[in-house]
Design goal:
The protein has a single domain, classed as Rossmann fold (3-Layer(aba) Sandwich), CATH 3.40.50. About 25% of the residues lie in helices and about 25% in strands. It has 4 helices and 10 strands; from the N terminus they run ααβββββββαβαββ. The protein has helices at about 1-15, 25-50, 145-150, 170-180, and strands spanning about 65, 80-85, 100, 100-105, 110-115, 120-125, 130-135, 155-165, 190-195, 200-205. The strands form 2 sheets. A 7-stranded mixed sheet has the order 3-2-1-7-8-10-9, sandwiched between helices. The chain is globular, with a radius of gyration of 19 Å.
């Protein structure tokens, strides 16, 4: 949990422009808690935002899996989306599964990495049952390293960002998505919206829907 909270604190500092924090200060704890709460509310709006993106397959689905988020910044908790994350502590799932593991992409293959005493254990994600990989507000660029490979080999991804329009790190977060998008081939869509004082931006694979046609044979 400590490692996860440190990730959130760094995002808080980046968004607010705070250089140093005293994590033992009551003032900081209050300010940080309010910031986390506000981001959770924005996360609900972001979920609606990507749910109605005109992409196929749909983003919010039991065949989607959210990568690398925890109890305070996951959008999967109130949906049927599954989770792969090393930050599973404190999360209770009833409607969808959660796998405690790191995630990486190697030569276009999505891989789960579990850490054990005998060494790391690697297992490829069964893409037969996963139709979309998604994450939002990556902690750093490495969190979405090689995700364009997933898209380019025919898998579907959705990567998004959101926050307050007054955040100090909007430009750097947009650059994260731009760097990803520049490496993706065709077949994606991007949407941007602002609602009151919040912004939402996502890049999503948008595959064409294949429609089977029936062939009619005339008989004489």
């Amino acid at each position: 949990m400590e490692k996860y909270l440190n990730k959130l604190v760094e995002q808080f500092k980046s968004a607010t422009g705070t250089k140093n924090v005293d994590v033992n200060s009551q003032e900081f704890v209050k300010e940080f808690s309010e910031w986390v709460k506000s981001r959770k509310l924005m996360g609900k709006d972001y979920t609606s935002f990507i749910e109605y993106m005109e992409v196929h397959p749909t983003v919010i689905s039991e065949e989607s899996v959210e990568i690398g988020k925890g109890k305070h910044d996951s959008i999967a908790l109130d949906t049927g989306i599954h989770m792969i994350t090393p930050y599973s502590e404190g999360i209770k799932r009833t409607s969808a599964g959660i796998i405690t593991a790191d995630f990486s992409v190697y030569e276009g293959t999505p891989v789960m990495v579990r850490h054990a005493k005998g060494g790391n254990q690697f297992k490829a994600v069964d893409t037969q049952f996963v139709r979309r990989f998604l994450t939002q507000n990556p902690y750093e660029q490495s969190c979405i390293r090689n995700w364009e490979q997933l898209h380019n080999v025919g898998e579907n991804i959705t990567v998004g960002i959101f926050g307050s329009i007054y955040d100090k790190d909007i430009e750097s977060k947009i650059r994260q998505l731009e760097m990803l998008k520049d490496k993706m081939n065709d077949g994606y869509k991007e949407d941007y919206a602002t609602v009151d004082d919040s912004y939402y931006y996502a890049v999503s694979s948008a595959r064409k829907v294949l429609v089977k046609t029936k062939t009619h044979t005339k008989t004489r």
